[in-house]
Design goal:
single chain, Rossmann fold, nine-stranded mixed sheet, Class_I_gatase-like, EC 6.3.5.2
């Protein structure tokens, strides 16, 4: 019997300089999910989101758009999310995917009041993470790659916060026994994060961020990256 694929839901397309540097989001996840059967859907291109019996679990990517834009393809994906989470499908949202899951299930998403969070930052696990099926192998603190302006200001009813950073209180959310989301990026390599920071040097400096310090602090994040294969094993 063939194994159903993991579904990568690529949300939007990166800027062209990012595509030239590292390709599109689906490729970043595929590189960290070697050996897993994968399928990719791009709702921003008008592609139809599949029925739950066509995949064994779904990963939602980050995006350069904003959840508060309420783009048609984003709202269509939010409605689809409500259906597959309700059906018990394993789901993992990342950055925009994290925020979209929270929005879809009744949370509040908007710009972070303290501005963007960038660079390799420390995430702290909260009570409950040690007993969670996805998170139990994480140490109490671990490094993760972050680049975002919007955030989950209020989680949906019933969601549990399982990780935070100094900047952002909602780094990891669990919505049920098989649905999680991460504000950080387990799929982003140090090289890609370095590029994402450097391309925004002027804007980030204008916000008072120490861009050189952020660039020098970029490092590998193996504990965060390992969550992708762990999710694949659970799906």
């Amino acid at each position: 019997m063939s194994v159903l694929p993991l579904l990568i839901v690529q949300l939007g397309r990166p800027p062209e300089d990012v595509v030239r540097h590292a390709g599109e989001q689906a490729a970043w996840f595929a590189a960290e999910l070697a050996g897993q059967p994968l399928a990719v859907v791009r709702p921003h291109e008008g592609q139809a989101l599949p029925e739950p019996d066509r995949f064994r679990g779904a990963i939602l990517s980050g995006a350069w758009e904003m959840v508060t834009d309420r783009l048609d393809w984003s709202e269509r994906t939010a409605a689809w999310l409500r259906g597959i989470i309700g059906a018990g499908k394993p789901v993992l949202g990342v950055c925009y995917g994290h925020q979209l899951m929270a929005h879809a299930l009744g949370g509040v998403v908007d710009y972070h009041p303290d501005g963007p969070e960038m660079g390799t930052q420390r995430v702290h696990c909260l009570p409950g993470a040690a007993d969670d099926a996805l998170l139990s192998a994480l140490p109490p603190q671990f490094d993760a790659q972050l680049t975002h302006e919007q955030t989950v200001l209020r989680p949906p009813p019933g969601a549990v916060t399982l990780g935070r950073s100094t900047h952002d209180a909602q780094q990891i959310l669990r919505y049920g026994p098989r649905a999680w989301s991460l504000q950080f990026h387990p799929e982003i390599t140090p090289s890609l994060l370095h590029h994402c920071i450097a391309r925004r040097r002027e804007a980030l400096s204008g916000l008072g961020l120490d861009v050189d310090g952020l660039l020098q602090g970029v490092r590998a994040t193996p504990e965060a990256t390992a969550l992708l294969q762990r999710f694949a094993a659970l799906a």
